[in-house]
Amino acid sequence: MHIRKLFRFEAAHVVRECTSRHCRENIHGHSYVVEVIISSDTLDRGYMVMDFVLLDKVKALVDRFDHSYSLWRGEDAGMKAFVYRYNRRVVEMPVSPSAEGYALLFFFLVDKILREAECKNGEGNVQLHSVRVHETVTGYAEAFREDLALVDFTPDDVLFSSAILDDEQAPSP
Ligand SMILES: [Zn+2]
What we know:
Elements: E1 2-13, H1 21-24, E2 28-39, H2 56-64, E3 68-72, H3 77-86, E4 90-93, H4 99-116, E5 127-134, E6 140-144, E7 159-160, H5 162-169
Parallel strand pairs: 1-3, 3-4
Antiparallel strand pairs: 1-2, 2-5, 4-7, 5-6
C-alpha cells in the first residue's frame, strides 16, 4: 500500500545550462509542491502504513527551503556573493535546482529521515517509494530509489544559511 504526504514551499532559482533561456538566464520563483510517497506491505496497529506525525522532520526539512534562494554550488563567485549579500535565506545545493535536482535531493534526505524515524506501533516494511516535486501545476519530476545512483554528494553538501537555522528557532514574521 502507498500513502502520500504533500508539502509546499516557495523558492527562487536559476537553472543554469538548461535548454530554455528563460530558465537559465533569469532569477525567478516557483510555488513548489513536494509529494512524499511511502509504501509498506503491512499495516500498523492503527491500520496505517505509518502515522504522518512521524514525518514532522520532513516538514521541518521542506520548511528550510521556503522563501529561500536555491543556490547551485556550481555558480560563479560573483553570483554567490550577490545571492548571499542580498538574501537572508539561502540554500546552497550540490545539485542544480531543477525539479529533478530537488526530487533527487529530497529523496536522498527524506530516505535518511525515514530510516531514523521511531516506528513503535507495529509498522511493517515502511519504505520511501518516491518523491515528486512539482515546479508548476503541469509538470513534476519524480525520484525513485534507483535514482540514488545519481547521488554524488553527502548531507553536509547541502548548506543552509545561518538565517534559515535561526528562523527555525524563532520564525521571523
Ligand atoms: Zn524555474
